[in-house]
Amino acid sequence: MQANQNQNPNQAQITFENEVQTLDPAVVSLSMGNRNNPPEEPLLLSLQDGFGYNVAAANGRALSGFHLVRKTSRFIFNTAGLVEFMLGVAWNVSFLMDSWIILYHHRLCSDTLAPTLTYAALKIMTKRASIDIHVSPLVPPDIEIYKRTSQLRLHPGFNHCATLQWHLATTSGLGRHVCYVTEVLSSTLANLRPRGQNRFTLPIAKRIIKQVLLALQCLHDEMWYTHTDVKVEKIFAAIPEPADSRIQEYREANPSAYTMYGPPLHLQSLPQPVVFSISEPLPYLGLGGSLEDITVKLSGSSRSMSISICERDDFVAAGNYAQPPTLRAPEVTLRYPWTNAIDIWTVGPLLFRLLTEESLFPQDEETYSHEVHLQRIVELSGPFPQEFLSKCADRDRYLDETGSLKHATAVFNPDSLQELLGRFGCVDEDEIPGVVAFMRKCLTLDPKLRPSARQLLEDDWLV
């Protein structure tokens, strides 16, 4: 506040948006670690740009009574992501927030006991996302689930969902920001171990799949939401108990050498300098976790959608897509009224990824093609059922009257899941038929015939 009192009248009129336009590019680059683009969040993009990050957040600072001790999320800015948010219908704020580990005083129920220092995770929304949450007639899935915590807590899948503990608002030089407080989680399954060393044995993969299905069962049956984004990057390993002491011991044994990419960026329009902070996820194995006893939690419910919206004719007619492109269920691409069956589809590629560390439907997302994706599905699973195709709005765009692909490439490689798994050598030969049978249930082409999460949990192979 003292800095603001010392400003002259002209300086007091400077806005963040205007001042950013006048900054020396060399100074900005230095603050970003001598980079031309933001290494993580684009902190200098304003509300008018569709963002507006909480620029007060930095390692060691206090925010609404919380002490920020470690940044854990990593945002990679790209124009495609911005376009996706602007055009999307679903709650899609996952890349419009940053995530921090916070330390705060937790007051116990008993007045005779002193408050204890507790770790939690604080997800800070951008100004743009915060406004959208307030003005939308829809309640964000995260908050809707939070409101029903006492009811959902009895469901066995609730413990495998990353959910809110509470929500609040913080302020920065750009205004108010909605914040979600959650438990601290460690690594995602995508970065649990280094690339090339991140395959899971069959028993551990089964354990993970069962927990993910329990989470989906809770989301589908109790909340009537479709997750839409089931992938290894959204599945986190829970920190074994006692979590707080494990986090504290890890921080003491592994102090951060660097917490920011470059020197703080001082702006006259803000009371505190802007800091481009470095993300440091907590490593599961470094916290004493073991793969054999791993407990996972499915996150990303910000992108979940109410099934009632997914089934609406106007929603389907608008050509709304969901899911990561290379994991997309055929009914989404072909514009068939989709439900939570699209989440079950992605469990098949998830199991394949856990076992092989590879994508079942590989494709460069920057040059992604619907035609190539559909061809790969047909190569693995055979032709689409005619009854299913008859209700697909985009059938004629991709298939002819016989159900054959119009735009198949010259290289058409019919393959079997059994041969594919055999080539990777990741599963014992006598175990392959069981894996293939389970995956085929997940990859049932007609979504009406695809089993539910509840039915898959009763499958003999998984049990």
UniProtKB/TrEMBL annotation:
Gene3D superfamilies linked: Phosphorylase Kinase, domain 1, Transferase(Phosphotransferase) domain 1
Residues that span the membrane, as ranges: none
Residues in Protein kinase domain copies: 66-462
PROSITE patterns attached to this UniProt entry: PROTEIN_KINASE_DOM
Keywords on record: ATP-binding, Kinase, Nucleotide-binding, Serine/threonine-protein kinase, Transferase
Official protein name in the record: Protein kinase domain-containing protein
A Pfam short name: Pkinase
Single GO MF annotation: protein serine/threonine kinase activity
